[in-house]
Design brief:
By secondary structure, the protein is of the alpha+beta class. The protein is built from four helices and five strands; from the N terminus they run αααβββββα. It has helices at about 1-10, 20-25, 35-45, 95-120; strands at about 50-55, 55-60, 70-75, 80-85, 90. Strands 1-2-3-4-5 form a five-stranded antiparallel beta sheet, covered by helices on one side. It is globular and about 40 Å long. The N and C termini lie far apart (about 40 Å).
């Protein structure tokens, strides 16, 4: 029902969730909060393809982002927003060890992420 409503609002034909989206929905604890789930569906529906899916981390950015270049990261129930060039953590609910792993992966793939960001936004 939420997927259909989001598709109608976006004037797009969305028939099903991607397998990784279903997995994310199933593994997230939704503490009776339908609005949280609805917002998640809106974010996922407007995100570009995943930049990297490694060690349980999903790195991505949204189609309507703004500078500075940054990446969103999701793992289990945790989220983070990190500036790509400086590795400044803007927001994070990841555990300290997960955040450190995430930053290591960002260091390894920074150039690739920035190239995709710049190509997407025409920079």
């Amino acid at each position: 029902m939420l997927l259909r409503r989001f598709a109608d609002q976006q004037v797009r034909a969305i028939k099903a969730f991607a397998p990784d989206a279903v997995q994310s929905i199933e593994h997230h604890t939704w503490p009776g909060n339908v609005r949280e789930m609805e917002n998640w569906i809106k974010r996922e529906g407007s995100s570009v393809p995943t930049l990297l899916n490694e060690k349980g981390f999903k790195f991505f950015f949204y189609a309507n982002e703004h500078p500075p270049a940054h990446v969103h990261v999701m793992k289990s129930d945790g989220w983070a927003k990190i500036e790509m060039e400086t590795s400044v953590v803007v927001y994070s609910t990841l555990k300290k060890q997960e955040l450190n792993e995430c930053l290591e992966l960002l260091d390894l793939h920074r150039q690739q992420f920035l190239e995709v960001w710049n190509a997407w936004f025409g920079r």
